[in-house]
Amino acid sequence: MRVVLLCRYDGSGYHGFQIQPNNNTVQAEIEQSLKKIHKKDVRIYMSGRTDSKVHAYGQVLHFDSDLNISSEAWKRAINANLPKDIRIVSAMLADNDFHVRYDSVKKTYLYKLYIGKEVDPLLINYVGHQPFNFDLEKAQSTIQYFLGEHDFTSFCSKNSSVEDKIRTVYDFSIERDSLNDNIINFEITGNGFLYNMVRIIVGTVINVANGKYEAEYIEEIFKKQDRQFAGARADAQGLYLKCVEYNNEVVNRFIKNALKYYK
């Protein structure tokens, strides 16, 4: 059977999601838990990788198993062997042709940026930092330039091996956090994201918000198709994979129902 998991984790103590030699990763922790249950190696597949220190509200995973275990029992069994900063929020059984990566149609990322000279020490692992000027209206004026289909070469790390860098951004919002006036929330939804794309977009918006250049210059950055013209990559710890959407309504309902308890 194919088991789909909705996973939530604090990435502060991990070198990203994907397994790496000699480094602790989220994937390694989950696969170790599954190995204890199955008494053999079990490979999990992810909707997308997250980098070192990046978090997830709704990472979607799947693995194949020959054990006859209910969805709720899978959640309890896997969590029993996981550290407390990684939780399986929910589990479901899916058709064997469903794939968490290849069947995704939309992903939403959230970026939290703390504005102020000093970051609250209780937030240091969960926000990016902009110590000086940040004009929210100027930041919001950049949104129009990112919406739609574009070649995001300028907003992708140079070491990316992906050749096709055309992506579509469906929604993008930049708003002050309702609970903390010092935090600006960037929420962006697209059909896919290149390596470090969200963090570079945030870094570019920061440049507009602090007056380094005008919002209109973003059009020129797209035309250049060269990483050096976009802003610096924003801090990793402010980034969260919020949710993933699929061309499968059963899976989408499963994700929506699981996430509503974890705002």
Automatic annotation (TrEMBL):
The Pseudouridine synthase I TruA alpha/beta domain, residue ranges: 8-103, 143-247
Protein name: tRNA pseudouridine synthase A
Gene3D superfamilies per record: Pseudouridine synthase I, catalytic domain, C-terminal subdomain (3.30.70.660), Pseudouridine synthase I, catalytic domain, N-terminal subdomain (3.30.70.580)
Organism per entry: Gemella bergeri ATCC 700627
Chain's gene name: truA
GO molecular function, one term: tRNA pseudouridine(38-40) synthase activity
Keywords: Isomerase, tRNA processing
Superkingdom of the source species: Bacteria
Catalytic function, reaction form: uridine(38/39/40) in tRNA = pseudouridine(38/39/40) in tRNA
Record Pfam families: PseudoU_synth_1
